[in-house]
């Protein structure tokens, strides 16, 4: 038995992916237990492992943490990725909440019914290009530093890289008008723990494929 | 007057209400600037004061904070309503996320068409009584203390009371199977700052009625 955190989720990105990114960036090894069918979820629900009957769930430090943000907050504080004081934390929280909103849009695309896909795509690309990326480009421009907050790596930088890469999967030139985000992307990608996570064979998950969607729906609905 | 937090939102509950609750519970006086028309929102946007072009926005301690959870976390930490260590904070975060999910469902109810509304009301009642309230009932029962976490008032308690009252507005007897939560409700409602907030004339906002739904739709173009 190891002391490594253990993640319970499907073998896909969904709402667990930001947590995988954070752990990887912090250099923390983790194990994963995948839900492959509905019975796997039911089993966890029945044995009282899921506070609100939902995943993500992460076993860490003797706790069974649920709720994406609660888990991410815990990991960020524990591994010093949450700023040095209340004000830095406030900035990190603001940025990260915007990123969670965008992540919902990007991550949710693959699960949209066929007749809603186009509208969803238009909306998510519009928000990416006109709402979120300009905000983060401006943050970097205004202070001219390498990281979003407090001149040191925080969860905000990790999550921003994650959504940049996700957005690029949909539109490879999405960063065309954002030169600072381009250099940010290169810089953060080169951090050793993150560079390792970006290599094939890591626990980073690929985008959901259309043929996988029915299987996922069956587990949760 | 400078120094007090200033809230920018509509005159309704929406996503700002939890923030009003937490400031009130912490005994913090605050001002409000209400968005009454689409133009009011556009002005905030063109003034460049909304990081993601959205409200809630709260001017506090020299910052223009946006994103409900970011604002709530800041207030909770500043006013010692966030537990004493990492583990207590984790529990508070988990509990608050649960009540956020429940209140999120209730918040959208007035905006739904009649047939969907009825179905969702049933779903809210089901979730409240089978997924959420049992968790808080059990937490309080297991440790036998007055507050959810660390034997001390926290954001989780304030948020749970808010969620209970909202759920009761949907279904008045929703707590009938939860005696410990009934006692909790009575106890937390009696905390002086919260008792004051629950009285008429406070900055607590009423439930959203049909007329206000129309106003909100116009402002946010939804």
From TrEMBL, chain A:
Biological processes annotated in GO: glutathione metabolic process; xenobiotic metabolic process
Span of domain GST N-terminal: 3-83
CDD domains found in the cross-reference section: GST_C_Alpha (cd03208)
Keyword tags: Transferase
One protein family per Pfam: GST_C_3
Keyword Transferase: yes
PANTHER family per record: GLUTATHIONE S-TRANSFERASE, GLUTATHIONE S-TRANSFERASE A1
Family: Belongs to the GST superfamily. Alpha family.
Record-given protein name: glutathione transferase
Native source organism of the sequence: Eulacestoma nigropectus (wattled ploughbill)
Gene: Gsta1
From TrEMBL, chain B:
GO molecular function: glutathione transferase activity
InterPro entries: Glutathione-S-Trfase_C-like, Glutathione-S-Trfase_C_sf, Glutathione_S-Trfase, Glutathione_S-Trfase_N, GST_alpha, GST_C, GST_superfamily, Thioredoxin-like_sf
Source species, domain of life: Eukaryota
Record keyword Acetylation present: no
Keyword set, alphabetical order: Transferase
Top-rank EC class of the record's enzyme: transferase
Transmembrane segments: none
Name under which the protein is recorded: Glutathione S-transferase
Ranges for domain GST C-terminal: 85-208
Signal sequence range: none
Name of the gene this protein is made from: Gsta2
EC code(s) of this entry: 2.5.1.18
GO biological process: glutathione metabolic process; xenobiotic metabolic process
């Amino acid at each position: 038995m190891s002391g490594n955190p253990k993640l319970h989720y499907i073998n896909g990105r969904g709402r667990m992916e930001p947590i995988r990114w954070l752990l990887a960036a912090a250099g923390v090894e983790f194990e994963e237990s995948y839900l492959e069918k509905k019975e796997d979820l039911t089993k966890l629900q029945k044995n009282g492992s899921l506070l609100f009957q939902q995943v993500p769930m992460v076993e860490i430090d003797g706790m069974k943490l649920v709720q994406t943000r609660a888990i991410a907050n815990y990991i960020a504080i524990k591994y010093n990725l949450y700023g040095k004081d209340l004000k830095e934390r406030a900035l990190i929280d603001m940025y990260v909440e915007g990123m969670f909103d965008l992540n919902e849009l990007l991550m949710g695309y693959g699960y949209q019914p066929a007749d809603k896909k186009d509208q969803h795509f238009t909306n998510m690309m519009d928000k990416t290009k006109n709402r979120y990326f300009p905000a983060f480009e401006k943050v970097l421009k205004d202070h001219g530093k390498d990281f979003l907050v407090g001149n040191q790596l925080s969860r905000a930088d990790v999550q921003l890289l994650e959504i940049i890469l996700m957005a690029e999967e949909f539109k490879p030139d999405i960063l065309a008008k954002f030169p600072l985000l381009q250099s940010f992307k290169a810089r953060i990608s080169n951090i050793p723990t993150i560079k390792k996570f970006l290599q094939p064979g890591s626990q980073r998950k690929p985008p959901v494929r259309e043929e996988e969607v029915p299987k996922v729906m069956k587990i949760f609905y | 007057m400078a120094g007090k937090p200033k809230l920018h939102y509509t005159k309704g509950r929406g996503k700002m209400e939890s923030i009003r609750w937490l400031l009130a519970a912490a005994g913090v006086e605050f001002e409000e600037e209400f968005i009454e028309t689409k133009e009011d929102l556009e002005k905030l946007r063109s003034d460049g004061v909304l990081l993601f072009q959205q409200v809630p926005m709260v001017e506090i301690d020299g910052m223009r904070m946006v994103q409900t959870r970011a604002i709530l976390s800041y207030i909770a930490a500043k006013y010692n309503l966030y537990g004493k260590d990492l583990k207590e904070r984790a529990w508070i975060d988990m509990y608050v996320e649960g009540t956020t999910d429940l209140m999120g469902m209730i918040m959208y109810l007035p905006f739904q068409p009649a047939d969907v509304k009825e179905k969702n009301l049933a779903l809210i009642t089901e979730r409240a009584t089978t997924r959420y309230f049992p968790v808080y009932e059990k937490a309080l029962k297991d440790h036998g203390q007055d507050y959810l976490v660390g034997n001390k008032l926290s954001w989780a308690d304030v948020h749970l009371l808010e969620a209970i009252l909202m759920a009761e507005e949907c279904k008045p007897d929703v707590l009938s199977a939860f005696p410990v939560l009934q006692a909790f409700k009575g106890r937390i409602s009696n905390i002086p700052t919260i008792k004051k907030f629950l009285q008429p004339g406070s900055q607590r906002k009423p439930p959203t009625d049909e007329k206000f739904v129309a106003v909100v739709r116009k402002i946010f173009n939804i």
